[in-house]
């Protein structure tokens, strides 16, 4: 069924019904380790730097919803780089060791290199620099890769759903050529932003035929310098028309590749890693699969997400966020903001993917009419 912008909550309204975050009566000290109600530590922060993107991928920002009349956030609502850096420093005090910049498309944010330079100065409680990464659609990567590296960015992840130019242009829905994304990957490797992860969202009936061509290309052209990861098509947000029959299970992806290039399983590199890793048996590199639909990994999820206007989300499938912006722009001290962050995480019990089978259709509007509230859009808090 065709989506209509009249049925979608604008990004600017997401979570506005939630009360502003309050400073807890009992302070939560920043000890370098923060644990939620299910025993999961906070180690990763994803910061959305813009709600805009120059692609219109159907599974994320479909054109019939995000059209020329769509109301994006005004610039005054966006967190400044200094506000983002302040929050990142406070999160680091609670144990965050890795920050990923996302969007929308983060390279559309003007002077993004300035934010990276600021974030690169942050240290963990033990004196280590943060791991700084960025996820991009690759459209602007060729011209910006060297500057990103010089600013302090360490790695990039590129979203790429097909090597077939016609399929890719159809999926990004703005007629953008795949050759320009591949040039961006080459430029990022040349700049030292590797190893690069390339993420392919697999949608049954749309691009599943591209699984083997993608594996062949990156294996032969880049080997261990590029890790290709296949992501199950997820029910994020409410605008992409998600259906379970369009999900190709990761087990099927592995089986297809294994039939041509034998694979052996690898151990996770870090706790809470989203991808299951597989190596080519002949040493030709590795791939990964992210299976949040068929093999939920909520039990060790250690990620928080910060929207571009300062709302803290504790799950990719959340229906509302915790608004930190009033604290940032008010008189709250660093200790107050840090304590509020700690209190929020300590109350976290999100495990949407593990409970998915028990939930009903996501067809409500969040207006108290008895239906399930809409989940936040992936383009608003990053994937």
Summarize the topology.
Layout: E1 44-48, H1 81-93, E2 98-102, H2 112-119, E3 131-136, H3 141-151, E4 155-159, H4 165-172, H5 178-191, E5 196-202, H6 211-222, E6 226-232, H7 250-260, E7 263-265, E8 276-280, E9 286-290, E10 303-306, E11 311-313, E12 322-323, H8 325-329, H9 334-346, H10 352-355, H11 378-381
Parallel strand pairs: 1-2, 1-10, 2-3, 3-4, 4-5, 5-6, 6-9
Antiparallel strand pairs: 7-8, 8-9, 10-11, 11-12
Helix pairs in contact: 1-2, 1-9, 2-3, 3-5
Task: Give a structural overview.
- The protein is of the alpha/beta class.
- The protein is built from 11 helices and 12 strands.
- The chain has helices at residues 81-93, 112-119, 141-151, 165-172, 178-191, 211-222, 250-260, 325-329, 334-346, 352-355, 378-381; strands at residues 44-48, 98-102, 131-136, 155-159, 196-202, 226-232, 263-265, 276-280, 286-290, 303-306, 311-313, 322-323.
- It has a 12-stranded mixed sheet with strand order 7-8-9-6-5-4-3-2-1-10-11-12.
- Helix 1 (81-93) runs parallel beside helix 2.
- The protein is globular.
- The model is unreliable at 1-17 and 360-371 (pLDDT under 50).
Structural class: alpha/beta
**DSSP helix count?**
11
Specify the biggest β-sheet.
12 strands, mixed
Mean pLDDT comes to 87
Task: Give the key terms.
twelve-stranded mixed sheet, globular, alpha/beta, 383 residues, 27% helix, 11 helices, 12 strands
